Amino acid sequence: MIKKGESFYPSSEVKKRAWLKNRAIYKEAAANPQKMWNKLALELQWMKKWRKIYAGDPPHFSWFVGAKSNITQNCLDRHLKLQKNKVAMIWEPENVAEPKRIYTYYDLYREVCKFSRALKKLGVKKGDRVGIYLPMIPEVVISMLACARLGAVHSVVFSAFSSNALQVRLEDAQAKILITADGYYRRGKIIELKKGADEGLDNTAVKKVIVVKRANIEVPWQEGRDVWYQDIIKDEIDAIDPVPMDSEDPLFILYTSGSTGKPKGCVHVCGGYMVQAYATDKWIFDINDEDIFWSTADIGWVTGHTYSCYGPLLNGATFLIFEGLADWPNADRWAQVIDKYGVTTFYTAPTAIRMFMKNGTEILKPYRLDTLQVIASVGEPISEKAWLWYFNEIGKGKCPLLDTWWQTETGGIIVTSLAGMGPFKPAFTGLPFPGVRVKILDDEGKECKAGKEGNLVLLPPFIPGLLRGIYNNEKKYLETYWSAYKNKMYISGDLGYRDKNGLIRVVGRADDQIKVAGHRLTTGEMESALAKNLSIAECAIVGVADEIKGEVPVVFVVSKTDIPADQLKAEVVRIIREEIGPIATPKEVFIVKDLPKTRSGKIMRRLLRKALSREEMGDLSTLSNPESVQQIQETVQGPRQA
Ligand code: PRX
């Protein structure tokens, strides 16, 4: 057990199983990062070796130049010789009474090959984009791997995103195939996913829809376009050669929030992403043979891609995927799962930790959590209170608690203390991964002193898994990540500081993106959706603190018709749920006369946040309409006392 203000160092027991326990690795890697990545890459199989490890002229750069590989060869074929019958993936369904499904490495290899062949027959080839809109069922992992085996670029869309959100992403990626399911279970009810998927196909290039039978429900069907997954794999041969991929060929596109309305398609490439997923999973989580690794994130997010699919498979590990939610049918569901499988490595988000904290430790008592050896957190800043609770109550004061900082763009973890070394300091993520050069800079580009907050940036040679672009949008790529410091370094968009020992604490975003229950959302995307409504003249959305979810959206709307307020508010909620999904449901909607703006017309969202938290507004002289502020304060806080 540790208390406020203390740090934890791993015990000799923890060190015994650790891949890295000697601090010298930091020095060695810093002196020559390429050498470290070279060594790690050599632990994997390549069809052709690289001419050069890294070549770069930022903002463009390449890793493992000239090499050929296929990630599925390393995820599957490589393990068949020595551990064909080892369990690769365990699937736990939402319904407690439904049987689990277990795939050995051989099972998974065969399923992936069958589906790859079926995709090939449907015309899928190297470079084609394939949309995947599936819940947490084994077929989502099989689909990603089946695409990768053919060299097709998968683009997974979170299954709880709405049809509109799916449509925008499919259209941007020009996907020609969509893989979805008839339906899935959410809190015991069936969500009709195929129906939603169909609504998301307008204006897209999708010619075939492959439907996994999961919920056994009737679905709308378009003859000639729709096929059942189970039918097309039924008679397939269970072997197909992996397509050789250049290191810099795209492996997947994953959409994430931008500061404006349209989501950005982050492009990750075959060679670099593979090496980074492999190395970070191994060294950070200390993956060992007998481990059961469980990352609770949905596969629709990057954590799902790297640590519920590629990372564990590249390491030949056993991992778990779960269809359900933390608190259904009861708040002990996750504890039940940890106990059932003897999970050793548990990776989750602060929002879940806060929920467990609120429910108290009593409900955890019936369960064995002592199989846990490493616990970890990702997705948002974790408070000292939540950190201590997670460490003491779940990790029983003996498990390293890794607070891992990274982003969709970085492909894998960038900053965290390593399990075998520590230190684990509440609310601090720790040191950059060996060989990764992170700096904290002020707006002029000067390095911040310890304790001073600044912009987190990455310096060359970056990391092999860093995104290589935004799909079809070079301008956005340059503007978002590179232009702030003259194309010399990658700007993460996050703010953080170091303590006097160099440990990094990430405090949040420097822009208007928000994190709702760990899900990265852009207020811009929601605002664009609302702006299409004829009753809405203008709107602005900000994130406010929430005890469980971390942040939640609050909407400010200026109406341009005489529609009754209640009706307009309901309309706002409906549009956001339909256009983005239920996770983005606003906590509150305020109808205001005007929004505070600068003279150049920029909405001052900072003032809206201040009004919500009842802070002093400060100097309003740069506003073109300072009178709007008092009216907003009155709307939010009630009329002011005279
Ligand atoms: O603001 C940071 C926050 O999540 C953002 C990345 O979100 P996303 O691309 O959805 O990827 C989430 C999983 C990697 C970051 O820009 N974030 C992520 N991890 C942490 C964090 N903030 C504080 N502490 C973390 N450990």
Name the CATH architecture of the largest domain.
3-Layer(aba) Sandwich
Strand proportion, as a percent range, falls in: 15-25%
**Largest beta sheet, briefly?**
7 strands, mixed
Overall average pLDDT: 94
Alpha-carbon distance between the two ends: 52 Å
Helix content: 25-40%
What is the molecular shape?
globular
- Supply the number of structural domains: 2
* Strands side by side in the biggest sheet: 5-4-17-16-18-19-20
Low-confidence stretches: none
Going by CATH, the homologous superfamily of the largest domain would be ANL, N-terminal domain
In the CATH hierarchy, the third-tier topology of the largest domain is known as Rossmann fold
Write up what this structure looks like.
- The chain is α/β, with parallel strands linked by helices.
- The chain has 2 domains: 12-493, Rossmann fold (3-Layer(aba) Sandwich); 513-637, 2-Layer Sandwich (GMP Synthetase, Chain A, domain 3), CATH 3.30.300.30.
- The protein is built from 19 helices and 30 strands.
- The mean pLDDT is 94.
- The chain binds adenosine-5'-monophosphate-propyl ester.
